[in-house]
């Protein structure tokens, strides 16, 4: 009982941190500019607060907890430095922000959202959609390494976003429910480093976890960042392929 309570309190704290300042990559490094071609920055008043992933020319997937009214947010593709105008940026208004119908903001189950861009992105050398898996694809091999990217904080207790895009290699952690007292649903997966030190963090929320070239996860939540006992928790994108196709099909 006591443990449950503590976990809940910690969870709420961690959420508050990840949502308000949006977490950044811990233990990673700056990427080659524009090499993560599906990476999106979601911005409110021109300020980055969450990541996203381009999956179709006019659609970006992110986390439900990154929702804001569509009229108040913009999506930036082909972005590297958030502070410099580098001339390659593609900036879009958002015409629809559609949160999963079963999203639970207390447990973070179904933490997924689709954003329809006001116009399709220009696909080019810097901008390409990520690959979604089909039901028929073989299951995720938990020994593959994955990459998570974002502009989130690069130091654990920092509240400053990274100015440039970072990425870190993490491993899928299969027995994650042990660490999180049963709070990991079948729609979540965990990834991190066995010794800690590598993780997504505030400001990375909504961004991509790519394993073996496929979009497997969306940065969702965690207790603290880069702690060996509390790996990062991701929305398991495989479970939503049907929903994604249905939403896109009915909102084209
Ligand atoms: C986004 O919408 C605003 C307000 O409707 C408009 O002024 C602006 O030009 C639009 N931006 C783009 C990139 O379409
Ligand atoms: C998973 O990947 C490892 C190393 O890449 C490989 O040895 C193993 O056979 C794979 N397992 C499955 C079930 O594909
Ligand atoms: C989500 O994935 C797990 C396996 O990883 C599966 O057991 C479960 O049925 C899936 N849920 C849905 C709603 O597809």
| Overall morphology | globular
- The helix/strand series, from N terminus to C terminus, equals HEEEEEEEEEHEEEEH
Structural class: alpha+beta
How helical, in percent, are the residues? 10-25%
Oligomer: single chain
Measured distance between first and last alpha carbons: 48 Å
The main pleated sheet reads as: 6 strands, antiparallel, barrel
Ligand inventory reads: 2-acetamido-2-deoxy-beta-D-glucopyranose
Indicate the radius of gyration in whole angstroms.
Answer: 17 Å
Low-pLDDT stretches: 1-24
Task: Report the portion of residues in β strands.
Answer: 25-35%
Overall average pLDDT: 88
In total, the number of strands is 13
Helix tally equals 3
Strand order of the largest sheet: 8-9-10-13-12-11
GO molecular function, one term: serine-type endopeptidase activity
Protein name: trypsin
Main location: secreted
Subcellular location: Secreted, Extracellular space
Structural account:
- One of its GO terms (molecular function) is serine-type endopeptidase activity.
- Residues 1-22 form the signal peptide.
- The chain has 252 residues and is an alpha+beta fold.
- Helices cover 13% and strands 31% of the residues.
- It has helices at residues 2-21, 176-179, 241-250, and strands at residues 29-30, 39-44, 47-56, 59-62, 73-77, 90-99, 113-117, 145-150, 166-172, 188-192, 208-211, 214-221, 232-236.
- Strands 8-9-10-13-12-11 form a six-stranded antiparallel beta barrel. Strands 2-3-4-7-6-5 form a six-stranded antiparallel beta barrel.
- A hairpin with a 2-residue loop joins strand 11 and strand 12.
- The longest helix has 20 residues, at 2-21.
- The protein binds 2-acetamido-2-deoxy-beta-D-glucopyranose (NAG) (3 copies).
- One 2-acetamido-2-deoxy-beta-D-glucopyranose is lined by residues 91, 93, 118.
């Amino acid at each position: 009982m006591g443990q449950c309570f503590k976990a809940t309190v910690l969870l709420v704290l961690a959420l508050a941190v990840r949502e308000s300042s949006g977490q950044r990559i811990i233990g990673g490094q700056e990427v080659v500019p524009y090499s993560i071609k599906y990476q999106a920055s979601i911005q409110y008043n021109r300020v980055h607060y969450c990541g996203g992933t381009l999956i179709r020319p006019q659609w970006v997937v992110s986390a439900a907890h990154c929702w804001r009214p569509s009229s108040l947010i913009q999506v930036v593709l082909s972005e590297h430095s958030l502070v410099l105008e580098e001339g390659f940026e593609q900036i879009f208004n958002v015409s629809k922000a559609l949160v999963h119908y079963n999203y639970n903001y207390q447990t973070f189950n179904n933490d997924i959202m689709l954003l329809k861009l006001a116009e399709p992105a220009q696909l080019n050398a810097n901008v390409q959609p990520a690959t979604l898996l089909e039901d028929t694809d073989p299951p995720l091999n938990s020994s593959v390494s994955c990459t998570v990217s974002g502009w989130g904080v690069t130091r654990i207790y920092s509240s400053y976003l990274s100015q440039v895009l970072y990425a870190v290699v993490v491993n899928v952690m299969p027995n994650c429910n042990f660490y999180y007292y049963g709070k990991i649903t079948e729609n979540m997966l965990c990834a991190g480093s066995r010794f800690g030190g590598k993780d997504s963090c505030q400001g990375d929320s909504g961004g991509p976890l790519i394993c073996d070239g496929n979009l497997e996860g969306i940065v969702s939540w965690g207790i603290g960042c880069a702690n060996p006992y509390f790996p990062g928790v991701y929305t398991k994108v495989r479970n939503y392929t049907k929903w994604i196709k249905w939403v896109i099909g009915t909102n084209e």
